[in-house]
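User: structure tokens for GDSL esterase/lipase, please.
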Amino acid sequence: MAGQMLPVIALVAVAVFAMAAAAAAKVPAMYVFGDSTADVGNNNYLAGAAVPRANFPHNGIDFPTSRPTGRFSNGYNGVDFLGTYRFAARLSCAVLVGGKGDGCEATTPQAS
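Assistant: Done. Predicted tokens:
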């Protein structure tokens, strides 16, 4: 009987230590895969005069600075609130895929 309990006790011990380690770990980033409620868009850095821009006064009026942010939103979206309250830090900027001039690194290589 004692020989059969040893694997169970070992499994429980490993599970307890794994949960303790996971609870103490800090999450350095938040990845969001979603629709238009999670990503309100930013196209200020796309070339062309026919591309609609989001840098008008009403876009960003509910942000603390009340200035246009380049996002098609007048304030924070649900993901911004989640990041603010869950991680206790304001999201600094969005990582744009292939973006330029926004202060964030581009995450995809440039097509040549």
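User: Anything notable?

Assistant: Residues 2-24 form the longest helix (23 residues).
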